[in-house]
Amino acid sequence: MNIEMPGNETSAALGQNPAAGENVSAVNEWGGPRVSTTATSSPLAGAGDFDELSEVAGRVRRAMEQVIEGKPDVVEVAITVLLAEGHLLIEDVPGVGKTMLAKALAKSIDCSVRRIQFTPDLLPSDITGVSVFNQEIRDFEFKPGAVFANIVVGDEINRASPKTQAALLESMEERQVTVDTTTYHLESPFMVIATQNPIEMEGTYPLPEAQRDRFMARVSMGYPEPAAELRMLDGHAADDPLLSLQAVTDGQQILRLVKTVQSVHVSESVKEYAVALVGATRRSQELRLGASPRSTLHLVRAARAAAALDAREFVLPDDIQELAVPVLAHRVLPAAEAHLGGRGAAEIISGLVSSVALPRSRRD
Question: What is the sign, positive or negative, of the torsion defined by CA atoms of 336, 204, 69, 323?
Answer without folding.
Answer: positive
